[in-house]
Amino acid sequence: MSEAAEDLMEPAPEKEVESPLDQEQQDLLLATHIVRAVDVRRTYYRGGQPLHALRGIRFSVKRGEYVSIMGPSGSGKTTLFNMIGGLDKPNEGQVFIDEVNIAALSSFELAWLRCHKIGYIFQTFNLIPVASALDNVMIPMFFAGMTQADAQEKAAGLLKKVGLGDRIFHKPVQMSGGQQQRVAVARALANSPAIILADEPTGNLDIHTGHRIIELLREINETDGVTVVTATHDHKMLSVSDRIAWIRDGLVERMQNRDELQIEEGHADVIR
Ligand SMILES: Nc1ncnc2c1ncn2[C@@H]1O[C@H](COP(=O)(O)OP(=O)(O)O)[C@@H](O)[C@H]1O
Ligand SMILES: [Mg+2]
Fold this sequence. Notes:
The chain is of the alpha/beta class. It has a domain at 62-89 and 105-265: P-loop containing nucleotide triphosphate hydrolases (Rossmann fold). It has nine helices and ten strands. Strands 6-7-8-3-9-10 form a six-stranded mixed sheet, with helices on both faces. A four-stranded antiparallel sheet has the order 2-1-4-5. β9 (243-248) and β10 form a beta hairpin. α5 crosses α6, α6 (148-161) packs across α7 and α7 runs parallel beside α8. It is globular, with a radius of gyration of 20 Å. The model is unreliable at 4-14 and 265-272 (pLDDT under 50). The structure holds adenosine-5'-diphosphate and magnesium ion (MG).
């Protein structure tokens, strides 16, 4: 792509408008955003050719929200997740978690933030196959410095919460996909995170099992106040989301509230 063509795709610069809010009100407003991505760009190079996976993403999530990032395969969902989760760094732009610019953190501080603030759920569950469900859930607790006895008690409680109280000694190979993803949900909750990032959590599950995982995430969001951000191209996710970020070709095309969605599309497959 020519440089001129790329310039045309730049978002129009925003006009500087003086805020009518005083400093205290502005601080409060910022504090309600637990995740902010500001003009994030990420370019991969393949055989010397640039591939613009994220082309200036602006995206924020309020504390306690359930937000779905919807977009076709290849639109940049996982890349955005890796940025928000501190697993990869933008080429340009900033990511703030709880108003901390994660690029300013040392590797030790970043590891602390990832361990304590964020719970990760992946499409492929990513459990340790030879370890029991209980051990899988306990592992992040050891990284956080919890004692064996405390970790065991907490992990057993979390497995019970996700409906696996009678399977704590099963290994992933002895479990169905849905059960494995429940273990992954319990593991994501291990260190009582403020945010759960779930990248295509239903991608490897059948429709019914996928619904139940989504319901579980929504329940955790509502009862524990954990902020949930899911990436998906699964339309079942829409009805449980407070807001939906539609992304395409590395840009947020539009943000949509749940009520707008129901009016616009009159979704018949509302699951709650
Ligand atoms: N490590 C990588 N190296 C090169 N290209 C990549 C890499 N990861 C992702 N991409 C490319 O970036 C684009 C966005 O990918 P991704 O974020 O995985 O999309 P999604 O999760 O929405 O399917 C795709 O074109 C993909 O091929
Ligand atoms: Mg992906």
